[in-house]
Amino acid sequence: MNRQQISEQLKLMINDLPSKLQERFEKDNLIENLITVSLDTNVIDIINSLQEIQTRTEKTLFNERQKLVKQAKEQELDLIRKHSEDEARCADRPQHLNLLQSANKREFDAFVKRVADEQQRFDMKIVLDLDQKMLEQQTRLEKVGVPCMHATNKPQDVRLQMFIIEFLQHIIKQQQNSPRTENSI
Disulfide engineering: 142 pairs with which of 26, 81, 149, 153, CB 3.0-4.6 Å? Predict the structure, then answer.
């Protein structure tokens, strides 16, 4: 893709943004800066690398979360089975059965609370890990000169950064799908 084609693509994508973000592009001369960055093969390689790392990280975290859920489900089934067996052994002693059922209910309730707490802690770990990944990506992209990239957690800035990354990924995909010519730069 050449500068003109990239400019046209960017302007089309900008039109879909909320007006406040559109204003940032006009005010900060981001269009020209993004076009220049999108033609830099070093930036393209870094964006591809960051995307691969993020995909692997998300997949790993998802698999860990699924493993945690599966283990909890297995433990729950084991506990239910144990309670059923214990209650079956006490079936002929109703006075003991009531006490056992009460104890089993307390044990099960404590188990459910423990599992919920573990899952909440793990989910918080996921959020913190992803936040850390985002800061690393922001810093890396800032170092290679991608406009508006800096370490931040301000929602408006993050939305702009997400758009910029989406745009660059779109251009990268377009460039990979079209044959490169000598006058594309």
Answer: 149
Burial class (CB in 10 A: 0-12, 13-18, 19+), 47: buried
Residue 54 · residue 137 · CB < 8 Å = yes
Give the pair of three-digit tokens for residue 115. 């599992």
Choose the weakest-confidence range: 17-21, 39-43, 84-88, 157-161: 17-21
Measured distance between the N- and C-terminal CA atoms of the chain, rounded to whole angstroms:
8
Q: Show Cβ contacts of residue 2 under 8 Å, excluding neighbours closer than 6 positions.
A: 181, 183, 184, 185
How many angstroms separate the CA atoms of 63 and 55, rounded?
Answer: 12
Q: What amino acid is encoded at 168 in this protein? A: L
pTM: 0.76
Q: Would you call 39 helix, strand, or coil by DSSP?
A: coil
